[in-house]
Write a structure and sequence with these properties.
The complex is a heterotetramer of chains A (319), B (161), C (115) and D (391).
Chain A: H1 2-13, H2 18-39, H3 55-65, H4 76-95, H5 111-132, H6 136-166, H7 172-181, H8 185-188, H9 190-203, H10 215-218, H11 228-253, H12 265-284, H13 292-316
Helix pairs in contact in A: 2-11, 2-12, 3-11, 4-5, 4-11, 5-6, 6-9, 6-13, 9-11, 9-12, 11-12
Chain B: H1 2-19, E1 24-28, E2 34-39, H2 44-54, E3 58-67, E4 70-79, E5 82-90, E6 96-98, H3 108-118, E7 121-123, H4 150-160
Parallel strand pairs in B: 2-5, 6-7
Antiparallel strand pairs in B: 1-2, 3-4, 4-5
Chain C: H1 4-12, E1 35-37, H2 47-51, E2 57-60, E3 67-71, H3 80-84, E4 90-92, E5 107-110
Antiparallel strand pairs in C: 1-4, 2-3, 3-5
The chains are: A mainly alpha (319), B alpha/beta (161), C alpha+beta (115), D alpha+beta (391).
Amino acid sequence: MVQETIISLLQIVIFPGFLFFIIAAFFYEWVDRKFVARLQNRYGPLHTGPLGLLQPFADFLKLLSKEDIIPYAADKLLFSVVPIFMLSLPFTALFCIPIVNSTAPISFEGDLILVIFITTLIVISVFIGAWSSTNRFSTIGGMRACLQMLGYEIPMTIVIAGPAIAAKTLSISKIVQWQTAGFWFILTQPLGFIIVAICFLAELQKIPFDIPKAETEVVAGWLTEFSGKKLALLRLAGDLEFVLAGSIMTSLYLGGPSGFWFMPPFVWFIIKLTVCILILSNLRGLFARFRIDQLMRGVWKYLTPLALLQIILVELIPW
Amino acid sequence: MSSLFREHRDIIERLKKEIGSESLIGYEIPRPRRIWFSVRKEKLVDAITHLVGEGFVHLSTITGLEGENGLEVIYHLNRKGLEASLKVEVPIKQPVLPTITSIIPGAILYEREVHELLGVVFSGHPNLSPLILPEDWPEGVYPLRKKWTNEEIKKKLLKGS
Amino acid sequence: MSMEEELIRHLLKKPVTLRYPYEKLPPVKGLRGKHVWDSERCIGCGLCATDCPAFAIELIGKGLTAELKIYLGRCLFCGQCEESCPREAIRLTQLYELAESDRKNLILEFKREST
Amino acid sequence: MSSIIKIPFGPQHPSFKEPENFMFKVDGEYVVDVTPRIGYAHRGIEKALEDRTYILDLYLVERICGICSQAHTTCYTQAVEEALKVDVPPRAKYIRTIVAELERIHNHYYWLGIVAHEIGFETLFMYTWRDREIVMDLLELLSGNRVQYAMNMIGGVRRDITPEISSEIMKGVKVLGERMEYYKKICSNERTVLTRSVNVGILKTKDAISLCAVGPTLRASNVKRDVRADDPYAAYDEIPFHAVTYDGCDIASRIATRCDEVIESVEIIRYALGHLPTGSIEVIVSRLVPSAEIVSRVEAPRGENMHYLKSNGTDKPERYKVRAPTLANLTALCKMLIGGYIADIPVVIAGIDPCFCCMDRLTFVDVNNDKSWGWKGEKLRRYGIKWYKKQ
């Protein structure tokens, strides 16, 4: 009995748990920066560790050692809680993703809805952080983040419901199991995959939709007042979100840790996750930034109808 | 080349007819595509309106300088490469000139600059507030005047602060 | 029409950035860098000092015993001294790495060998 | 009338490379009025020019602006040569034209990168600035320095173009032309770039003329006025070329105008290198300049550059006035900003390719006396967003 608890404890803390997620977050930030750099014909991080592999970790340590200023007029309590709160959200969501085998550490009927709720909570905490730091830029950034959430949240939720309907279940693990038995949803719902990719770009505030953090207009948006340890935690939370977005895309559309050859499921999961991350990074290097009103118009005029069309298609095509 | 000079001379003749020969103090054509007039202060606005009518729509800039007898303000008008510079003399004690922003809106900034650096007051200018120098620049110090050499200005600034 | 195929094409190409301390471009022939002074040719006329826009050259002494002091901190490397010198006594070489840790090293003192 | 808010677009702002302050009156998302408050980089160059000799002035004039230094020095040396009644050898005129066109290419690549950065297109910014290195290397090869070329001298040019340099320039310029054609295709078809540049920062033809705008900003509003064609200087009267105009009157057409101008400059350089006359490249001139009054005009990459020289027979100018292109475009810029979105302010300001240190040589401040509480940095996005939420 004691053994299982230790193993499950180790599972939570070490392997598919915290340590793995943090390392994955740093690794994928490095992949993202290196890939976009190579797209733009430059090197990207280079000197810290082999091929600059430790650069994200070095940034994290540097920020930890920096002075941590709380603005005088800021709401002290909220200002310090938000980074910790924002860090915990992606962690909980990542536990619902099956990584090692096709059942996740937390898997119950309806964890898909929990994951979507967490993505919304992230934006809410962004707004609280921005509002509590009483800096003009951050309030502007916070407002923009909320506006942007109004835009992409609805199409994303509609489209994510697609695989759930097709697999007749609301648990990510069961969807993955359904796909290992059947086929990947990307084959039957390619439109859904594209829309989810665009919405995750908006959620992660990457280039085409990085209006809350547009440095040429709003300095650093809602991140302006955070510094030192808080900024380190927030950047780590951002990277974890990036991994979370990639893993949701893999588990819902690419069949999670399932592969037909000899390789163990975990390696398959890593390969698919890397592919999704590269897709998101590629999109990041491709577009110019939208204005907030163009984003809203574009999302409501194009994305939401397409999402509805996708759901109708899922209904019509039986399998 | 001579056709070019004839065209320049026609322009001068037309201007002379327009504002009367006694107020067109002098003119000169140093090289192709350059004409220099000097006009009496009172006839400035008529001369400018006439030239704008002739097609000199683009005002390159307004130069202000302190000549031997008083301040000189030169309006550089331009039409398709032909640069007509209109010089007006203003007494140093009472440097007032009518504004031409109503005729050429683009002149609004050049006039404010001449006002600030040289002290020429443009009557009728929408807002003749200082333009380049910092807010705490002492009153009455016009850097481009001969009187205000660098040491003079330094002394004034240090005394003022 | 997006830059997609351009991006992919550059994915495998070697990045353009030159990793400076490790890879260095050979300096161009006509580069205007550190000064070199030829004491035989210099007749101490002081033209270089008067024509220097940044007043970076200081002439010590007169005539054939003149010596030169060049303040690299102020110099624009415009090459006017090389231009105005009637005897080509002062020349700009291609040495462009002039960073110093101590300000005193930024002053080039050209002395004549006291024979 | 909803609340008019006064917002300073602060002197320290990420999208400005130089200190510049615009006071915006904003009605929600729309700009109602803008008053520039400039002069932060004012160095009193005109006063300094008066107490230096002509040779020292050459290098002071060259450093009015980082990018259009060749334009300023060409304008300056032409003025002094005209006063000295000295004729520059034809080979020097051709070399001046070549360096001026290389600098135009350099400026337009730089500008395209800045605009791409303003609208958030990082990749295009990286690519354009990578290709800009080609033209900077060419200039270094030719003049010994990447930015401040010091090619011009009173009475001619300092360095000659040897056959190897000329073939090197031919190769480099060919690549630059092809790359710019590619970027032009991108900027006129890429959807995201178009949404951020079409109908942004409108300057109608009528306003462009009445507010005396200059350069590509004017030519993008369908006014065919280019100093190289109208008032040819250096070797432009012997080199066939046509001024580029577009009628879009917005940022998209300004991008297209500058792209075409680069392609045009490539042709000019090719023609000039092909027909380079032989002969000496400089004439020795006296240091004392006879008294005269000269107006000299040059087409800088940003627009018409005008210098006025009054010499009095000594070796120092009595009065030297410089009017940089950005100064002329400033009133037009204010016109463009009014009525536009707040989110477009950085792009529109970058649209006229402002060189504040050029302009600050003499510039403008409008200190409005009523209570204007100065917010540090720029908070105008906040009001834009609040207005959106109410919408």
